[in-house]
Amino acid sequence: MRIAIVSDYYFDYVGGAQTSMRQQKLALEEAGHEVVVVSPARGIFGARYQPVHDGLQVKPLFRLPVLDLAVIPKNEGSVSALEKYFRDEHIDVVHVQTEFGLAHVVHAAAERIGIPLVHTVHSFYWASEGPPQASVAWIIRWGLQLTIGDKIPKLLFTKRKTDNTLRNLVLAFARKVDRIVSPSAHQAADLKAAGVTGTISVIPNPIATAERSSTPLTLEQAQRPSFLWVARCEPIKRPLPFARAAIAALARTHNGFSVDFVGEGADLAALKKLAEGHPEIRVQGALSHDAVLAMMDASSAVAITSLGFDNQPMTIAEAVSRERGVLYCDPKLSEGLANSGFLSTTPDDEGLADALVTLVNDPSLLVGLSNGAVIDRELFAPSGYVERILEVYRS
């Protein structure tokens, strides 16, 4: 099949959705299918739509600097350009994985041609910190509706007006399509409860990259374990509660472990300040994907500390693919962690500290989680993903 993966996000930004799309592309190509990527790109001059060897690059009308989001309005010119591209490339199915302007453009183009369109929802749980921004929420809603050429519902999911608008933006697109993919069952249930009537298929994110073979955790490595926290260093990912928990656990275990934090964001300065005087806590900043995988291999377990925000973090898929267990605090993230996950009793600082102390004091638990990852990683196998997604495409 010839498949077009579509994203409103810049592909050069390292985020969970982009990582998932890259892994999907690899999995499908390894299975013999042809995949092109349609997405905005930076530094484009000249024509708005520029074909490249592996897809189509789109020059946005402008970029929202804080969100780093490309603005590509839906209009007749854009729809016609994408319709022509899909026809010229003999695209069999369009797989949209965002909900902003470009997603609505390609939806209209696919409808004109009569080819199927599938929508993967990577996050129904938009959340932010800071002021509620009620004074600008109406402007954001107005601007988004102008960009997508459609109305946005007004269901109340959260009291934060801008977050609520973005969640309703996701809902608006999911309601337009017949086939939806959710990487997690809990998000699928929430979409259905919000009024999505199309068929929702639960298909976990795949891991198709295999540059190096993984190795199981040894008891010797687990004697003085190292934990890896890797995510955007933002309040929604909760690096500061985990850092405070680590400091408390270090005191209770006589500095019996270490923690590496990888990522950049608004909480980075505060995280560095917390880590001062604690050499066991290392704040690495942003690293390349290869470097992150190497750190996973060197770690004893990976920590995910978001709460009520994530759908299915790619970090879970990557951790179990590297034969590493996962310490987590959100019970909704248990999918894929049946044998490799360690859930803290509570998500607060104290609960996370208790979990760290338990794992440090009993290294065999960490080894057991590593062994369990070998079982759990089958859920994220590329062959399984391809089989499931082809069923959706063909239906």
Give an overview in words:
- With 395 residues, the protein is of the alpha/beta class.
- It has two domains: 2-206 and 382-394, Glycogen Phosphorylase B (Rossmann fold); 219-379, Glycogen Phosphorylase B (Rossmann fold), CATH 3.40.50.
- It contains 14 helices and 16 strands.
- It has helices at residues 16-30, 76-88, 101-113, 134-148, 161-174, 185-193, 219-223, 239-252, 268-275, 289-298, 314-321, 349-361, 363-376, 382-394, and strands spanning 2-6, 34-40, 49-52, 55-58, 62-64, 69-71, 93-96, 117-120, 179-182, 199-202, 226-230, 258-262, 281-285, 301-304, 325-328, 341-343.
- The strands form three sheets. It has an eight-stranded mixed sheet with strand order 3-4-2-1-7-8-9-10, with helices on both faces. A six-stranded parallel sheet has the order 13-12-11-14-15-16, with helices on both faces. A two-stranded antiparallel ribbon has the order 5-6.
- Helix 4 runs parallel beside helix 5 (161-174) and helix 8 (239-252) crosses helix 12.
- The protein is globular and about 65 Å long.
